[in-house]
Predict the 3D structure of the following.
Amino acid sequence: MQAHQRMLDPTSKGLHSGESPLLQTAGLTKRYGDFLANDCIDIDIWPGEIHALLGENGAGKSTLVKAIYGLIQPSAGEIRWQGERLSGPSDARRRGIGMVFQHFSLFDNLTVAENVALGLDGKESFKHMSARLEQVSKLYGLPLDPRREVWQLSVGERQRIEIVRALMQDPKFLILDEPTAVLTPQEADQLFIVLERLKAEGRAILYISHKLEEVKRLCDTATILRGGRKIATCNPRLETAASLARMMVGGDIKEVKAASARKTTVPRLVVNDLSLAPGEAHGVRLEHISFELKGGEILGIAGVAGNGQDELFAALSGERLSKDPGTVVIEGIAAGHLSITQRRKLGAAFVPEERLGHGAAPRMKLSENALLTGHAASGMVHRGFIDTAATLKTVDSATERFDVRKAKRDPEAGSLSGGNLQKFIVGREILRKPAVLVVGQPTWGVDAGAAAVIRQALLDLATAGAAVLVTSQDLDELSEIANRIAVMFHGKLSAPLATSEASREKLGLLMGGSSLEPKEAAHAVGA
Amino acid sequence: MQLVLEKRAERSNTIALVSPLIAIALTIVTMVILFAILGKNPLLALHAYFIAPLTDSYSLQEIAVKATPLVMIAIGLSLCYLANAWNIGAEGQFLIGAVAGSWFAVKTQGTDAGAWVLPAMLVLAAAAGALYALIPAICKVKFGASEILTSLMLVYVADLLLDYLVRGPWRDPHGFNFPTTAEFDPVATVPLLIEGGRLHLGSIIVLLVVAAAAILLARTIKGFEIRVVGAAPRAARFGGFNANQLIILTFAVSGALAGLAGIIEVAGPVGHLQPGISPGYGFTAIIVAFLGRLNPLGILIAGLFLALTFIGGEQAQIAMKIPLDVTKVFQGVLLFYVLACDSLILYRFKLVSSNQQVTRGVG
């Protein structure tokens, strides 16, 4: 084992004198080639504590929890469970470490009970397991019908399956990776009650997040990682959001400058009574969607994932065409029937929610990914031949302007961290100086530093006169950048509210399917 | 101790180049065992397979002659495979090309048609191969029929059509009832590069095809489309590329190249149309395409290597009475190892001890 310097940790020692930590990492190091993803990390996690793991994208949070959960093997250092060394993933699980991943691993066409059964060891009968599932879900106030198929469930309910599946193994230590990223404010509050209860039962929770207010409210201890190293362990309640953010980023996060002096100009994106049948089996039908978006304006679309945001994105981008050209009007030209390339030529740009596989081809270089959307109207192609220099120039410009961090000049897209890849994808589109930008979940799973860069870029683009449509589940984000906010529910879009009038309560109600004024809802068609 | 596959952060370019070599080495080890079981001296057998053909000019020319159709077909197939379109029926497209070109040779036989006969035959063969390949492609795009099945089944249709023609309408009246057309006229024959040798113009054509494919894939937007559609279909749609259109295009191009290879073989080394003009070129080309990493230059090298196994197989049969079918076993084993070794590009082996000893990360 490598010699390593131990960090002294007065807080946790002082708090828990006399006991031994439940889980301990000592000098945990993970090296990928020359890159140190984790550099000598020491963490102590005590029973009955909610421990936050804070850090920017690429700070090493995922690597650390994967090592703890046994999914990857550390290059040096060790992980101790109640003083004993852990050996491998099955050992971690057997001793009572559970994990709820950010990306759910559920089968859409199977029922809740079947999905849970797949994740368990399978020694108990299905019937017994189903009964236990209902019991656990009731006990913790996580209502679930074991017989329903997953595709019918909301994202919040899907997360419940993952949590219940973890709880059924009676974990002493539960790892949660950004659990509130997909929840409505009301759903998040419910989750916090469950976590408080688990804590009261003496279980330990490692809570990965970058929402600082949430961490201050919920967590007893916070460990901050930056660039693969542990920066500090502290009590988040004694810190301010600003001081936590400083430790995460290693400096002050740039304030996103509000858009006070933005002038709206002419309508650049108009959607007229757009209805579209779903393209795939479990898709959402878009019903009578209408809105008008002017230059200089940012329209936010809130809503829980899976309420038609993906379908709306496909209809706006031209990945799915509409029979009636007039349903989507870009820069005054009816474009409902035009392909995505033709829409790009009209001055539109698009950033889809999924970075890998949709917004970018993971196994291709950044320069090739620049070409992916740039071939339409950016002078990267001459007479069918690729201008490699021009594609590389886009990579360099995006890197410089949007602070994309990467190991070499032109790596594969899949090797970038989520935040850096998102900065590149947003940058790639903004560099084309679009008149209309449609963005899905611009900062989903992206840390505070990268999120600030992206939001500022969207604001600057609107200030420069473009019309920007942002779909997001993060209400703070929308209230920070949008002029107006509409809510999507079951394929319908509510009338937009001015951001100043859109309180969390109002938006939360709309996101849950209630209407603010019954009369208006009845005539939502023309809204 | 436990051996695990660990995903690499980025694909390894070194392994991408080395993996075919590992596959070849493993194949040779397997063949040594097989030769030993057959009761033949493995060293002599390997010598007959891989060394002897390289020692005389006739065999060297013969390798180039055999590599010509293999490489030509494999280039077309690689375009299909890169675009995630699985054309397994190159053998049929090869035969149809041979038939279509031969039709013109048979029709002009004995007339005073000039030097334009051969170019016309080449164009006809390419067109016929392309059209024949479009059948599975259109079935795939329009009806969602598996192109793997339909393209494979059309091989047998082509095979039987050729059989019928040479036994029936096109049979050489002075051919002692052998199922073959008459020897093609000189204007309908692919010219030789060396007088009295075996090397013919087809080898030059195939080099041009390799160069064109290399430029297409690396430098043009069409080549980029083909690669994206295969590598990330959803991202390709987002980029505005039409996957169905590319299935049609790549099938047509690969059919045309297979058809061209067919007529060059018939109007070149064979000299007339007969059954058995192909020792399975269309299938072996699948191995060539993958062994060559779906890369034009790689395919050229892989084509020469597999041509060597054909020649070596004949030598081994003559010298050591090793059945010719062993060559096919060899080729099958090779494809198996090539595909298996490919997982090393995205993954790496790692030894993990069962009691979780800390192992040092290897880059």
User: Anything to note?
Assistant: Chain A has a mean pLDDT of 85. The first strand of chain A starts at residue 23 and ends at 32.
